[in-house]
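User: I'll paste a sequence; please echo it back and then give the predicted structure.

Assistant: Echoing your sequence first, then the prediction.
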Amino acid sequence: FGGYYLQVIWTKATGEIAELYHVDYYKVRTNADNSEFYVSDNWIKNDNVNPRPDFETYPAFDPNNTTGSQILYFKEYRAGVNTYSLPDYRGAISYIELDISIGEYHLNTINNGMFSSKLINLNGGKVSQEEEDRIERQFQSKFSGSKNAGKFMLAFNDSKENEPSIIDLSGTELDKHFDLLNLTVQQEIFSGHKITSPMLFGIKTEGQLGGRSELREAYQLFQNTYVNAKQRALEETINYLYKFNDVTAKLELKATEPISFEFSEAIISQNMTQDEIREKLGLAAIEKKETAGSQDIINSLNSLSPLIATKVVESMDINELRTLIGLPPKVEVITPEVAQEQEIITSLSLSDHMHLTCSHTKKDEEILALFEGKGFSRDRFKVIQNDRMVFSSSMDEFVKQELFAEYQLNEVQRKILKEIQSNPKVTIPQIAEATGIDEASVIGRINTLIDDNV
């Protein structure tokens, strides 16, 4: 129709749109300036204009008067047309009517049998009207209609002079004329509807292969030259109406593919994981030999830069690494000598540690080696309060640097904290752009700051 009608019903309390209905185009009439609309089911009665139809009157859609029920009329622009719209196919209307007439002609030809194309003269003399009617009914009953096509007629005559004469009224080579006319009509109707290829509507074109690529190209061309503009007009109308209900999400018509892509089995198998292939075969997935949480650790390592990830792995002991790859912990065998040294270390008091000197003996080095890899790194703690304690001069600098060092932020960490403090809703990509490092490194550093309670 080149347009459509929507019935918009407003909410009395809030001024929002309560209901929205499509109104059949043939039911609506309007005044010259489209300010009022009249809806009726009986504009036509007995194939004629109804002089007294029952109709309801609706005002035009008015966003400044959000009350009652209104009619929104969308119509495509047509030069010189103001009140009603015109369909896109108006240029092919004559050929559409011609197509209807051709169909009616062929139908009547079959239903009326040979009467439309033959003239039969009965030369047996003039008979009464009643006798003519009786003979005509006999001919119609016996030779007309689609079921009698191809039957022959016998005539019994007194003499050669009284034989009936049959005159052919049909034109010559009418079949070729109709074939040519039918092709012309079909092409004009397709052109009037902007159809780029009849294949889209299941009509085979002679000399055309009709492959998948040709069909996809024809569909894309039809979509771009005809469908897209109409879809955008629908989207704009619906999104415009939804704004009155404070719906900000943009609604779009989702395009569909006429023919889906098909890949060979080789390409499919090359791009599927082992578990996906097993799922296609109806087999269970292969059980992963890893402990709970191992994959989380691996994912965390992958999110770090290679340099930092290497440092993290180097700081892990043998059992942590074995657990990560799904192996049982290694049982440590403690000799009596080692056990005795451990007892000695345990019995040492804090005051003993405070009076150790920095000149280590070989035994001291062995004792200190036992502490390697034990406990927690100082980087995991933040000093809340500290007091200066008096130690010997040889231990003071060591304690200040190694035992009670305050949490020191590097430049990148300070930048990250600054971004978070200025905008608590800042995203990872925004931080990465501000600090000049990649997103994976940002995630790793933020995780470190979280672990350190910063």
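The two ends are 67 Å apart (CA to CA). Confidence is low (pLDDT under 50) at residues 345-357.
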